[in-house]
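Field guide to reading this record: the first block holds the primary sequence, the second block holds the structure written as discrete tokens, and the final block holds curator observations. Each block starts with its own label. This record concerns JmjC domain-containing protein, catalogued under organism Plutella xylostella.

BLOCK 1 — SEQUENCE
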Amino acid sequence: MSTASEIYTELLELKTRIGLEEISELDIACKSTIHRFLSNDSALSNIPIIKIDAVLDYTYERINIGNWKDVKPYLRKTMTIASYIKLIACIKSIEPSSHLDVLHLQKLFKIIDHGLLFGCPIEKEPQLLQKCATILNKHNCEQLTDMKLSSSAQNQDDIQNIDSSCHQGNEIIVECPSMEYFYKEHILTQKPVVLTNCIQHWPALTKWTDQSYLIKLAGLRTVPVELGSKYTDAEWTQKLMTLGDFIKQHIFTTEGPTGYLAQYQLFDHISELKNDICEPEYCCFSDTNDPVDINAWFGPKGTVSPLHHDPKKNLLAQVVGEKRIYLFSPSDSEFLYPHDDELLNNTARVDPRCPDLELYPKYKDAKAQICILKPGQMLYIPPKWWHFVESLSISFSVSFWWE
Ligand SMILES: O=C(O)CCC(=O)C(=O)O
Ligand SMILES: [Fe+2]
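BLOCK 2 — STRUCTURE
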């Protein structure tokens, strides 16, 4: 295990990758704090943490005023750079010959994750904060193995123990189709399909069934979690917590509100996890050069994504556990009673598990395709197809959205 001073040295090497051009619009006082750090090795000891905190507080406030999409990139870049400086300053304040303990690591990962959640990549080193996290992880993985889980055997069983009487519905399953077949039969015709045998090689398929692997790799990392049974409920909310706390409080207990790490770009945040998955080749059938949006969906048994549709093509890969999915064609929209509200008009009012035919009589004309997605399978959901997703066990899925 490395000493604080060795880690400090390694982290400091990344400093040369930071340029000031990208934050030239920044307020002069903040800029001078950052500039002092960048221009002189020894200057760091002269910058009290309180000054860096002031830059972080100022930037955080500016970022959180108004609409997220209107935030100026220089503010989010400042958040990234100031988080890096704070990280360096914090390590510098630890006795150089000592080893980092869990409390140190907790504090340091909080700084990195705050920067990743509110900042954005800087040009010359888009992976700046991810690299810092990798450096800390590499040197200190042993520390994290001690974080014991209070998992009961029963909950572990939850991963595998599915009611085998669930019928397979009327979906089609195709074994690893050729690129040509998939393009002609599914992309062009916009027909959903369950694909088997396409992701068998993913390390995630074996690694992620072991929660202690996720805890060891990323237990101290902060992630956003949705709380509440579904996003259409009034009491639904979101919270930031560490992945370790999420696993302990929401994966291995059934008390309290359902927690769902849903629709989150976890692989941009924790880059080590990306090595466990692989972007499917079918995503190359694209009309743009935009990167594929990869999202994680990790939760206990009983998470529900209400009936909704998305604008992009989607391959939903099931890694751990099973999900029941109801699909409806876009031509069934009028039978599903979409909300009128602009924010929710891609979401239907009907719950296909127990449709209220008095309230929603036209639902009787809708044609559901139901499938149970199993580990190692991938469901292709064409753009605008309605889908309702319920987890039947502890579940980890990865979605690939592309245009
Ligand atoms: O798995 C889920 O809960 C929902 C997935 C979904 O809606 C999607 O991938 O677009
Ligand atoms: Fe969706």
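BLOCK 3 — OBSERVATIONS
Residues 148-169 have pLDDT under 50 and may be disordered.
Residues 297, 303, 305, 310, 314, 316, 387, 389, 397, 399 surround 2-oxoglutaric acid (ligand 1) (CB under 6 Å).
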